[in-house]
Each structure stands twice: as C-alpha cells, then as structure tokens.
Amino acid sequence: MRALLLTALAPLAWGTTYAVTTEFLPADRPLLTATVRALPAGLVLLAVTRVLPRGAWWWRAAVLGALNIGVFFALLFVAAYRLPGGVAAVLGAVQPLMAAALALPLLGERISRRTLLAGITGVTGVALVVLRATARLDAPGLLAGLAGAAAMAAGTVLTKRWGRPEGVGPLAMTGWQLTAGGLLLLPLAALVEGAPPALTGGNLLGYAYLAIANTAVGYWLWFRGIGRLPAVSVAFLGLLSPVSAALIGWAALAQALTPLQLLGMAVALTGTLLAQRPAARKPAVAGKPTAAHTPTLAGTRYGDRLARR
C-alpha cells in the first residue's frame, strides 16, 4: 500500500503542470517547456548518481527515454495544439488499456474482465471531468494523441519487461531516461520554436518547479513504483492527473467545478481503484525495469489555451 500511495504522488504532481504553465511560463513554447522539464533534471540525476548505462543498456535507455519522455512529450503537445484539452485528456486516458493489451505478449499478463471494466470506467470518468460540448475533432490531432498514449504504454511495459541492471537503482534509471528524452527534444524545440525568449524571475521559478518537483522527483517515484507494482496497476494511476488538474484549477485558478465534473472524478477514481487488485508477488527477474506517463492534458485552461492557438 505504501508503494501504491507514493507512486500515486507522481500523477497528482503532474496535474499541477497546467496551472504552473499558465501562471508562470512564457506562452507558445510547449517544446521548450518539455525540454527544460526533462534535460536539466536528467543531467542533475546523472551527476548525483554517477552511474552510466553499460552494454545493451545504452540503447535500452535511449528507447525508454524516447517512449516515456521525448516522443510522448512531443506528441502530447501536438495533440494539445490541434485538439481541445479535454479531448487530448480522454485520448490519454486510453493508455492503461493499451498497456494492458501490450502486457499480454510482453509480460504474459492476461487482460481480465476487471481490468477492462476499470479501463472503461476510467475513460468515462475522465471524459465527464474534462470534455466540453463544444469539443471539436481533428484527424492529425487524434492520431497524435493516440500515438502519444501508445508510446507511453509501450514505455511502461518495456520498462517492466527489462527491469533494471543489477546494482542500478530507480534514481539512476530516471536520470538515463530523462536525459535521453531531453536530448531528443532539444533539437526539435530549437528547430520548431527557435531561440528561447528572455525569461523573467517567475518563468525561472516555474521552470525550476517543473524540472525538480514535477519531473525529477515525480518520475523517480513513478519508475520506483513500476519496479514494485504490476505494470497495468501503475498505468491506471495516470488517471489521477486530469482529476488533480481540475481540482487545482478550482482551488488555485478559481475555475468552477460542475456537478457533472464531480461525478466524473468519482467515476475516474473508481476505475483507478478497480485496477489496484492484489497480485501475488513474483520473484524479481534480473534485468527488468518499469516505466512512466506522464501527464495527460486535461480540459484545463492550459489545455484549452493550447488547443485554441
């Protein structure tokens, strides 16, 4: 239970991303924000742990960093630009079902009726929280949202399948993946958005929070949890992110919460709890980790702002 609660802190923290972005960060720089979230945090963790990949772990860390951080962040923001934040959040909520489907061939974990019910319940709850009647659809945006969810699902399951090298802790693994993902995002941000703008003190404070608390600590808790819990159970914790974002929008940004949204939160939490079934612990297999998600764009002011641009 302690591992579950600590892991849940990660998506709850990711729900703060949207409020911090709207209130502290420069506008129209999503790829810069993604890069600053990942790369500095990864480099700091590498400096702290002083552990580098060896052998096959060079390419494995690159693959996991791309799926969990680089590719996921990039596709997440493409979806956010082309879709209302609520639609992007619902697409992200499909990720646990994708992880369950991949867990069958890669981990030998069968999809139970309970998992399917939890997935459908979770998607329904998130939809009630974030969707608006005016939501519009866009084919490239839909494809990007689904591809981003698939990347995160694949990263989660592969991390569980590969485990960690002997003697390497989750902090070092987090540093490897954040650095790999950040290095992938860096040239993309420079090519698409150009040189970064002049930053204010508020901008620097916002970036520092995202890099340290939201990303370095958040992803460390997430990867740590994947190493101790079933991959599908961890994937369902990602449903807490849009719920957290909506609550923070209400508490900090004076955004109204309707009775339908409150019902959606209860439904999403029900789906998350349904997926946390007790599982018989299996002995750890050498050389197998676990992965992350990252945040899902909820129908917050930030998600809707991105979609309108």
Description:
- The structure is a single chain.
- The protein is mainly alpha-helical and 309 residues long.
- It has one domain (2-308).
- Helix content is 73%, strand content 0%.
- It has 14 helices and no strands.
- It has helices at 2-14, 17-24, 30-49, 57-82, 85-93, 95-107, 113-130, 139-162, 170-193, 201-228, 231-237, 240-252, 259-274, 301-308.
- Helix 1 (2-14) packs antiparallel against helix 10 (201-228).
- Residues 279-309 have low confidence and may be disordered.
Class from secondary-structure proportions: mainly alpha
Output mean pLDDT: 82
Instruction: Tally the beta strands.
Output: 0
Low-confidence segments, ≥5 residues, pLDDT <50? 279-309
N-C termini distance:
42 Å
Q: What is the H/E order?
A: HHHHHHHHHHHHHH
Total helix count?
14
Strand content of the residues, in percent? under 5%
Rounded radius of gyration (Å): 18 Å
Helical residue percent band? over 70%
Q: Major beta sheet, specifics?
A: none
- Name the overall outline: globular
Count of the domains: 1
